[in-house]
Task: inverse folding
């Protein structure tokens, strides 16, 4: 992937010997290096202002590297035995960093990640009993209102804070209404057909629609224009044979451009990367490769709009450096068998 700086892929260990941690790819031809192996990694965030700094969310809390992954330090985190599944660096105030945990918890740092404190319990009811603890999968920050953030939960819907995580409003009631529609019912691991609509994976806000929120769940992509009080199906099925929404990101270069990872299911043999250039009104397939498993995560380069990279669950990483005209399969090491996250910078 000539022209990129570094690509980071986060993986979980598997029962058949697959390795967890962070794998790093450099444009200089070094291939993939296993640069972090202390714990499974579910989230990777490159600092938006300083690409040397990389945050990761692990089974053992948050870690940080200040030299592009060569060395790592565990950050000042108040709790042990909390998995971190999401990390957000506030673009308006990079000293503010949020971490989302499993079991559900929100942590905030006001000093760039040096120290975190646990915020008050969001207080959402537990609507689905799963075989794993519910987790905070992703945050999204309002581009113009400091402290106004959203989060989505796997598996328990979405929530909204107007005060930097000090308190939260439940944004799930209308998702439950939608879950009564036959086409949006899904039950796999619980005793409720609402499971699919509450299976939140990613959430995003565009500068062109700052009061709107887009949510990626098992049943597709959904939009709210009223701070999560109501949700509308974006009907991505009109454009894609895949509707399992795993990731949704807004381009840092064009707020009208969105990227979505769409697949068949959490564990499947197919998926694709779609993009929209009109803030989600229409969608087109963006990649021209053949992912052989669920497409899990997508990353854009903050300083190079032509670069987009994405990973498929069973060990594939694809990238373009010319805006999608051509693609390279940066083959992952055989030990990397369960990918969750990707970032570049």
Result:
């Amino acid at each position: 992937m000539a022209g990129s700086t570094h690509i980071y892929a986060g993986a979980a260990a598997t029962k058949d010997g697959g390795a967890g941690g962070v794998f790093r790819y450099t444009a200089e031809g070094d291939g993939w290096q296993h640069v972090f192996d202390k714990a499974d990694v579910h989230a990777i965030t490159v600092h938006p202002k300083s690409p040397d700094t990389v945050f990761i969310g692990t089974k053992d809390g948050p870690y940080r590297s200040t030299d592009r992954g060569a060395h790592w330090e565990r950050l000042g985190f108040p709790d042990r035995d909390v998995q971190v599944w999401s990390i957000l660096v506030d673009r308006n105030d990079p000293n503010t960093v949020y971490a989302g945990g499993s079991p559900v918890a929100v942590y905030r740092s006001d000093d760039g990640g040096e120290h975190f404190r646990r915020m008050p319990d969001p207080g959402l009811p537990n609507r689905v009993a799963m075989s794993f603890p519910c987790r905070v999968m992703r945050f999204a920050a309002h581009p113009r209102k400091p402290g106004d953030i959203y989060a989505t939960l796997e598996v328990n819907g979405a929530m909204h804070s107007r005060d930097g995580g000090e308190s939260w409003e439940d944004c799930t009631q209308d998702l439950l209404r939608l879950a009564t529609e036959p086409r949006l019912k899904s039950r796999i691991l619980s005793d409720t057909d609402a499971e699919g609509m509450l299976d939140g994976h990613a959430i995003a806000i565009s500068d062109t629609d700052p009061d709107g929120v887009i949510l990626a769940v098992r049943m597709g992509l959904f939009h709210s224009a009223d701070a999560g009080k109501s949700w509308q199906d974006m009907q991505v099925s009109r454009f894609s044979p895949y509707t399992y929404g795993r990731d949704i990101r807004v381009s840092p270069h064009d707020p009208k451009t969105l990227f979505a990872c769409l697949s068949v299911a959490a564990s499947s043999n197919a998926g694709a990367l779609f993009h929209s250039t009109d803030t989600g009104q229409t969608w087109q397939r963006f990649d021209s490769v053949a992912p052989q498993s669920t497409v899990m995560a997508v990353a854009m380069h903050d300083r190079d709009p032509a670069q987009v990279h994405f990973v498929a669950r069973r060990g594939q990483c694809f990238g373009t450096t010319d805006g999608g005209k051509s693609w390279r399969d940066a083959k992952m090491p055989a030990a990397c068998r369960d990918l969750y996250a990707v970032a570049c910078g």
In short: Residues 120-203+212-230 form one domain. The CA atoms of residues 32 and 333 lie 7 Å apart.
